[in-house]
Design goal:
five-stranded antiparallel β-sheet; flavoprotein; oxidoreductase; FAD/NAD(P)-binding domain; six-stranded mixed β-sheet; FAD-dependent monooxygenase; 10 helices; Glutaredoxin; RIFMO-like; alpha+beta; FAD/NAD-bd_sf; 30 strands; Alpha-Beta Plaits; single chain; 3 domains
């Protein structure tokens, strides 16, 4: 299909004119839609499913994702999920605790995450249309819009037109296929089968390596047991349909010697260790986020969290582009920043897949790594990789310990009340936070795009690394664009604000 050809006109087609088309109403697409709507962008979300998922799928939210949801005031909607400080690296137990408000990992079924994000997106005005199968996408010839054609659940053609389209349609992305996007990487060599099964009573297994493969079993509070099994040496071939419960029963029996065939499967799934990443997350007016941009073994919940943070990085940048006040090159920083983060995550997942699914030949490596993980710097480094707390963007310019890193969690005194740094990020704008001395006058020129707040660290509260910091400028996604420790000068502030927020109003 030619990417510069408009879809053929169809007199019977419903035509939807919007600003941004989001393909896929999973967690990544819903978060992106909400971030855009928060900033006044009209968004149409099209989803092939006929309704919200009832499958649990990914069930882990990491520390950085919890910070993201806190900065949007969403955490109460999750209802206090269980916290588990222990995760793993390639099946080797790993304490994920790091400094911050949400150490460890938080157990939230994916359908709950989708429910919270869908309700938020709808409350902000997102137009979400389920039961739409995408069949055509094109950049129209004048180059200033994107058109897509879908087939609605009743068979009617629907044409959508917007300034941009974002593919959030998963690892088998239709958009990626239609656009013939370059998706290099390593093909699958191993697979795992998994199912949620009711009515079985087997012992819990946490990455149990057996002569015949790998077995995992975890029983939920409702009595349903999630089982996962990898059979050593099993070929990964092209499938013509989904995994079947009978396959899992047979593989489980061969690996563990147990029979789970008497249980009732509630959900059956398979995944593999294919490891690929788009060469470019942006193709003009078409962008990619989440599993549409990268495909990896979904170990430890990293795939979901990586995708959510893609959307959080992209939302404010695309909104500025649509509104017409984005500085030159802002939207291109989405690829520059998130491709590098994605490459690092895919590299650590590839290492984990070897440790997790390899045979007896990887045991010496596992033993050495398990010993090294007892040293705090090694443990903290691996925990940072998995939790997303190690992300630091290269902004160039004058060095500062906070520049390019996320804004630390701290409790502040603002006027006569207290709040956290994340509460100050709940608007759709950037933040100029002054913790000592006068508020730099330069920040006022970006009124409406940057909030200016004078505060001080609450006495006796954890500072989160803000000790000695006099002022920080923070992007809407919570990353520090500029920081100053002492002195009355505000050198570099104007340049930082212009770089991320455009010309002053």
């Amino acid at each position: 299909m030619a990417a510069d050809r408009a879809p053929a006109a169809d007199a019977a087609a419903e035509v939807i004119r919007t600003q941004v088309i989001v393909v896929g109403a999973g967690p990544v697409g819903l978060l992106l839609a909400a971030e855009l709507c928060l900033r006044g962008v009209r968004v149409a979300v099209v989803e092939q499913r006929h309704g919200p998922t009832t499958e649990s799928r990914a069930s882990t939210l990491h520390a950085r994702t919890m910070e993201v949801f806190d900065s949007r005031g969403l955490l109460p909607d999750f209802g206090g999920p269980p916290n588990e400080p222990r995760g793993h690296f390639g099946g080797i137990p790993l304490d994920l605790t790091l400094p911050g408000a949400y150490p460890g990992q938080w157990k939230v079924p994916q359908n709950k995450t989708e429910s919270v994000l869908e309700e938020w997106a709808l409350s902000l005005g997102a137009d979400i249309r389920c039961g739409h199968r995408l069949r055509l996408i094109a950049v129209v010839q004048d180059g200033d819009a994107v058109e897509a054609e879908t087939v609605a659940r009743d068979g009617r053609p629907v044409r959508l037109r917007g300034s941009h389209l974002v593919a959030c349609d998963g690892q088998d992305s239709t958009v990626r296929r239609l656009m013939a996007a370059d998706f290099p990487g390593r093909p699958a060599g191993r697979e795992l089968l998994r199912a949620d099964v009711d009515g079985i009573d087997i012992r819990a297994r946490r990455f149990e390596r057996l002569p015949g493969g790998l077995a995992i079993a975890a029983r939920r509070e409702d009595g349903v047991t999630r089982v996962m099994v990898h059979e050593s040496g099993a070929a990964v071939g092209a499938r013509t349909g989904p995994a079947r419960f009978e396959e899992i029963v047979a593989a489980w029996r061969r690996v563990t010697g147990e029979d789970i065939g008497g249980g009732k499967p509630l959900w059956v799934n398979r995944f593999d260790d294919e490891n690929r990443q788009l060469a470019d997350y942006r193709h003009g007016r078409v962008l990619y986020a989440g599993d549409a941009a990268h495909r990896q073994l979904p170990t430890g919940g990293q795939a979901l969290n990586l995708g959510l943070q893609d959307a959080f990085n992209l939302g404010w940048k695309l909104a500025a582009e649509v509104a017409g006040h984005a500085p030159a090159g802002l939207l291109d920083t989405y690829h520059a920043e998130r491709h590098a983060v994605g490459a690092a995550v895919l590299a650590n997942i590839r290492a984990q897949s070897e440790l997790l699914l390899g045979g007896p030949e990887v045991e010496p490596v596992r033993a050495v790594l398990a010993e090294l993980m007892r040293y705090e710097p090694v443990r903290a480094r691996l925990a940072g990789m998995i939790s997303g707390l190690d992300v630091r963007y290269d902004f160039g310019g004058a060095a500062h310990p906070l520049r390019g890193a996320r804004l630390p969690h701290a409790t502040l005194r603002v006027g006569g009340s207290t709040c956290t740094t994340y509460e100050l990020l709940r608007s759709d704008r950037g933040l100029l936070l002054v913790l000592g001395g006068p508020v730099p006058a330069a920040g006022g020129r970006w009124a409406g795009r940057v909030d200016r707040v004078a505060a001080r660290v609450e006495p006796g509260a954890a500072s989160g690394g803000l000790d000695g910091v006099r002022a920080v400028a923070v992007r809407p996604d919570g990353y520090v664009a500029w920081a100053r420790d002492g002195g009355p000068e505000a050198g570099g502030l104007t340049e930082a604000l212009e770089r991320w927020f455009g010309a002053p109003a």
